[in-house]
Amino acid sequence: MNEQIESRLSDSGKELAPFGKRLFAYMIDDMLISIIFVIILWTPIQNAQSVEEVAAIVNSVWLYMVMTQILYHTWFVWQYGASLGKMAMKMSIVEIETMAQPRLAIAFNRAVFRIISGMIFYLGFVWALFDPARQTWHDKTASTLVVNA
Questions:
Q1: In this model, does residue 1 exceed pLDDT 90?
Q2: What mean pLDDT do residues 65-78 have?
């Protein structure tokens, strides 16, 4: 881990959140959004006559699902410094520079690149396993860290 990050963590008394907690928070967040879309699409999916029709229904709302994820993560990270999943797991997101909760532009950047991290075979998330600061690609682009709350 670079000295600047170590120094800022030490000065603020914060510690990096472990990968396992982050994974569980990710699952909570994705389940919440998925449940919302299952509820919205329940009737059309129930009326579908084939797997192809179900796939067509899901594909027709894919962009809305992505936009919902971006809005969800931007809003919660900007307003509370954590998504609902991270809050449940007692973690928060901080900017490296200030060790404070992210500003709107940083939260938006992180949310957009979170989608990209997942679209490329989740490599952006796996990156955190090998990064000394446990940063994913979306943490790196936004200059953020996930810390225990």
A1: no
A2: 98
pTM of the prediction?
0.93
Alpha helices in 14-97 (DSSP H): 19-47, 51-60, 62-80, 84-88
Contacting residues for 124 by C-beta, under 8 A, at least 6 apart: 113, 114, 116, 117, 118, 136, 137, 138
- How many CA atoms within 13 Å lie on the side-chain side of 16? 20
Q: Which amino acid is at 139?
A: D
Q: At a CB cut-off of 8 Å and minimum separation 6, what does 121 contact?
A: none
Separation of alpha carbons 132 and 31, rounded Å: 28
| Beta bridge partner(s), residue 91 | 148
Structure-token match 């996930």, residue found: 146
| φ, ψ dihedrals at 82, nearest 5° | -170, 150
Residue 91 confidence (pLDDT): 98
> What is the per-residue pLDDT for 64?
96
147 phi and psi, to 5 degrees?
A: -125, 160
